[in-house]
Amino acid sequence: VVNVALAGRSYEVRVGAGLLDDAIVQAREFIAPWSGRKVPVVADANARRLHGDRLTQSLATNGHAIDWYEVSPGEGSKSWAELERLTDWLLARGVTRSDHVFALGGGVVGDLVGFACAILKRGCGFVQLPTTLLAQVDSSVGGKTAINASAGKNLIGAFHQPSLVLADTACLATLPQREMRAGLAEVFKYGLLGDAEFFARVDQDSAAILACDNAVLEPVIAHCVGMKARIVAEDERETKDARALLNLGHTFGHALEAETGFGDRLLHGEAVALGMVLAARFSARRDLISLADAESVTEALARAGLPTEISALGLDCDGTVLADHMRHDKKAGGGTVPFILLRALGEAYVARDVELADVAAFMDEQL
Ligand code: NAD
Ligand code: ZN
């Protein structure tokens, strides 16, 4: 159990195998008020098919039934159209501000439901039941919620914290290896940004993590959640540098995602892996770390089967195009783009003196 302590309010993130089978006990205080009415659960279609029965059975032990709302898998569901359909559905069910809605799925469902609950009657409660590695270590914790706009990803959103997060590691057994690896990139990120020892441990254990060996997986997820909880407690709304460090690899990665169309060609986590390699190499180029250190990052990610060379993407663009995507980054402002760079492995910082022309030249070398 990790506690996310925020000013005036806090919530628990529980990590463990089989938590969904025990949901009726784990989430009792948020389920009990639904007595006599069906419990609204918004679910990714795959997550429902593979793990919905466990939730249904757990709730049935106390006489509760579920009203399912299914969301099609994929980034396309973080849309205005889906948000409207979902909020209409929640209103039709008479959800009030004191009620809790349940979100079962990966980051797509978590972000969509979180945002719907942030604006429904000016804010109702929600419980996250993350079913992907990425959602368990990152997106379900911290209260960033959003849908996508035509101008870019996650541009319409709100800060709205869940009341409880149940990360059932047993869900990960059904996750495709490629999705598992993408989540592992975010796990490496925690080590690289603030804990070199953890980075080495993840490198050592990457095969066991990918194989869902719970004895390894559970403490690793809990460690990531613990780090995120500390960062969010210090800087809930990203007004200081602390939370920005979580964007390590993301400015570079985002440009690659934009260029590849935010789809199956390059998953978010894969883009983050490439972005971390680029951030490490760019840090070496600026003499912040050694080239050997930068390449040790590359090698660890490669050992875990993550992509590390953007030349392999076969992008049909030059460095200026990629740098231009970074200019439009949500965190950009006042003509500068903050970059998360490395002072050492396990020590990231926010660099505000990076010229995009320099980044473009660097990207040209990498392409
Ligand atoms: P996702 O939600 O799209 O899920 C990935 C795939 O796995 C989907 O096809 C889904 O159907 C499937 N799936 C889910 N659970 C499964 C299971 N247990 N077994 C088998 N298949 C399963 O992707 P994601 O990687 O979880 O999340 C990505 C989203 O998260 C992006 O939209 C990103 O913007 C967002 N995100 C948000 C935050 C935040 O702080 N709010 C942080 C990082 C990422
Ligand atoms: Zn990410």
From TrEMBL:
Reactions that this protein is recorded to catalyse: 7-phospho-2-dehydro-3-deoxy-D-arabino-heptonate = 3-dehydroquinate + phosphate
Pathway info: Metabolic intermediate biosynthesis; chorismate biosynthesis; chorismate from D-erythrose 4-phosphate and phosphoenolpyruvate: step 2/7
Binding-site residues for NAD(+), renumbered to this chain: 107-111, 131-132, 144, 153, 171-174
Binding site for Zn(2+): 186, 250, 268
Cofactor annotation: Co(2+); Zn(2+); NAD(+)
Cofactor binding notes: Binds 1 divalent metal cation per subunit. Can use either Co(2+) or Zn(2+).
Chief site of localization: cytoplasm
InterPro entries from the UniProt entry: Dehydroquinate_synthase, DHQ_synth_AroB, DHQ_synth_fam, DHQS/DOIS_N, DHQS_C
One function term, GO molecular function aspect: 3-dehydroquinate synthase activity
Sequence ranges assigned to domain 3-dehydroquinate synthase C-terminal in this UniProt record: 183-332
Keywords (A to Z) from UniProt: Amino-acid biosynthesis, Aromatic amino acid biosynthesis, Cobalt, Cytoplasm, Lyase, Metal-binding, NAD, Nucleotide-binding, Zinc
Coiled coil: none
Keyword Ribosomal protein carried by entry: no
Residue intervals of the 3-dehydroquinate synthase N-terminal domain: 70-181
EC number: 4.2.3.4
Annotated compartments: Cytoplasm
Function in brief: Catalyzes the conversion of 3-deoxy-D-arabino-heptulosonate 7-phosphate (DAHP) to dehydroquinate (DHQ).
Family membership noted in the UniProt record: Belongs to the sugar phosphate cyclases superfamily. Dehydroquinate synthase family.
NCBIfam families to which the protein is assigned, alphabetical: aroB
Record-given protein name: 3-dehydroquinate synthase
Source organism of the structure: Alteriqipengyuania abyssalis
The organism's taxonomic lineage, starting at the top: Bacteria, Pseudomonadati, Pseudomonadota, Alphaproteobacteria, Sphingomonadales
UniProt gene name: aroB
